[in-house]
Amino acid sequence: MIGSEALQERLIEVRRHLHRYPELSGDEVETTSYLRSQLLAAEIRLLELPGVTTGVVAEIGSGEGPLVALRGDIDALPVQEETGLPFASSVQGRMHACGHDFHAASLLGAAYLLKREETTLQGRVRLIFQPSEEKATGAQQLIQAGVLDSVEAVFGLHNKPDLAVGEIGVREGPLMAAADGFRVEVRGRGSHAAVPDAGIDPIVAASHMITALQSIVSRNVSAQDSAVISVTRLNSGHTWNVIPELAHFQGTIRTFQDGVRQKVRQQFEQVIYGVGAAFGVEVAIQWIDGPPPVDNTAEWIPVVQEAVAAAGLQAIIPNVSPASEDFAFYQQHRPGVFIFVGTSGPQEWHHPAFDIDERALAPTATVLASIAHHALKHLAGARVAAEQTSG
Ligand SMILES: [Zn+2]
Ligand SMILES: [Zn+2]
User: Fold this and answer.
1) How far is the CA of 132 from the centre of ligand 1 (A)?
2) Cα of 244 from ligand 2 centre, angstroms
3) Could you give the CA distance from residue 218 to residue 266 in angstroms, rounded to a whole number?
4) Which of 288, 320, 338 corresponds to the end of one domain?
């Protein structure tokens, strides 16, 4: 039996271990074997999914009752840690700078709690320790391998440094953005820098394109909606006295609704091709489709709010985040809710001095377990109601 103090101590140990040995997306080999052995030691059964080599899927409960899933991610980032913590990353240039060590530890804590209460579960809980979130490929890989088979609802979490420990952000509808990438190639005609009229300058054309893109958010997106367009890289030329043939730029678009996403992309193409035609350059646009928006199912919000209250924590309505999360892919297949967990952090996600307040560990495990209990109760209740009306 784990008391809450013992649970907290145990989860600190797990989180610090994971923090010390961060692994990049798709390469979570040691993390996987560590989590597997912790789950097995707690006599929690593991599910083997075809083709899945990193990440762990486990299940608690039995019988014909409903099945819900809890998901946490486990990968780290190519960031050089600057926290100075005694348990800082032992690997050069790699760090748990997004707090996925915290997610994995909290989910393991929820597994301990659910295992302890296994006989009271009104169904089964599938625990998904997902790899490759930062590359936005892990969720799709697991979905293809069948991780959502028989699952009726899916729940996930992300730490939130700007919320206080004890605050749980629960928001209906869009919570995090769709993240699309773009690469634009602008092909002109090279010439001597002193004779620009003999060529077609791709640098001037690309500059006009980038400037014109700035009007999409201000002139084409409704005041009710929001979007971000950022050009993050611009390359052209080799020296001072030659007009080059090519210019490239790339960047990202963030949106919160599918309609806005499509509209911004259309407008983006219109601007690039239109400006390109005006300058007489050839233009090629390459899209890199990222995750859709994280979009929380309205029907499940009251269930999650109730679960948060039952865990003794406070549900608040958080601001939306322009970052993206591949949890959104699960929500394309199943209803579900993604919550933000307050961790009173000193820095935002992906910062070299990112950290979480460990006091959030046991409460987060408790809230995840509570969500699983309440979700199963909700589904079991709906089944009974359906049987009564049909009978
Ligand atoms: Zn991240
Ligand atoms: Zn993250």
Assistant:
1) 10
2) 40
3) 15
4) 288
- Residue 57, domain CATH: 3.40.630.10
Q: Find the helix packing angle between 29-41 and 100-116, rounded to 10°.
A: 20
Contact 279, 204 (CB under 8 A): yes
Return phi, psi of residue 2, to 5°: -110, 120
Which amino acid, 39? L
Ligand 1 centroid–CA 80 distance in Å is 14
- At 161 the pLDDT is 98
CA distance 155 to 135: 20
Which residue range forms the structural domain that includes residue 383? 4-176+293-390
Match 């998904």 to its residue by tokens.
128
Q: Which ligand is nearest to the CA of 100?
A: 2
Cα 286 to ligand 1 centroid, rounded to whole Å:
24
Instruction: Identify the burial level of 96 via C-beta atoms within 10 angstroms of its C-beta, where 0-12 means exposed, 13-18 middle and 19 or more buried.
Output: buried
Parallel, antiparallel or unpaired: strands 167-169 and 336-342:
antiparallel
- Give the residues across from 16 on adjacent strands: none
Q: What is the pLDDT of residues 73-128, one digit of tens each?
A: 999 999 999 999 999 999 999 999 999 999 999 999 999 999 999 999 999 999 99
Percent of the chain at pLDDT > 70 equals 99
205 and 164 co-located in one domain: no
- For ligand 1, the distance from its centroid to the CA atom of residue 188, given in whole angstroms, is 37
How many angstroms separate the alpha carbon of residue 82 from the centre of ligand 1? 17
Annotate 111-128 with b (16+ C-beta within 10 A) or e (fewer). bbbbbeeeeebbbbbbbb
Distance from the alpha carbon of residue 77 to the mean position of ligand 1, in angstroms: 7
* In a shared domain, residues 132 and 214: no
The SS3 call for residue 352 is: coil
Both 129 and 170 in one domain: the answer is: yes
